[in-house]
Write a structure and sequence with these properties.
mainly alpha, 5 helices, about 0% strand, globular
């Protein structure tokens, strides 16, 4: 997995795309993944997401974050966010006109 997933920055970006007001990007620390994941879990709780893995379980089983636990967490965030009523992704990039060939 890319380091952005391992340090919690990409997961925070996913959460931000659905709920821009719950992740304080200026407080994220690429050098402190535990802190970043804690912010993501707090944000998830704050918007009512139900995840199959808890923050406590994630950190107990992930002294070094293993790929399977992280993939479960990422998939769970996406699934919970997409199933949440009244959320919308910032689709500005998705709605942009395709690039034309020269």
């Amino acid at each position: 997995l890319h380091s952005s997933w391992l340090d919690g920055m990409a997961l925070a970006a996913v959460m931000h795309s659905y709920h821009p007001d719950v992740i304080p990007f200026d407080e994220l620390r690429p050098e402190d993944p535990v802190y970043n994941f804690q912010l993501c879990f707090e944000a998830a709780r704050g918007v009512g997401l139900e995840l199959p893995i808890t923050e406590k379980d994630f950190f107990i089983t992930s002294a070094r974050i293993d790929d399977k636990s992280l993939l479960l967490l990422i998939a769970s965030f996406f699934r919970a966010l997409e199933n949440q009523p009244n959320t919308s992704v910032n689709t500005s990039l998705h709605d942009a006109a395709p690039l034309s060939a020269p």
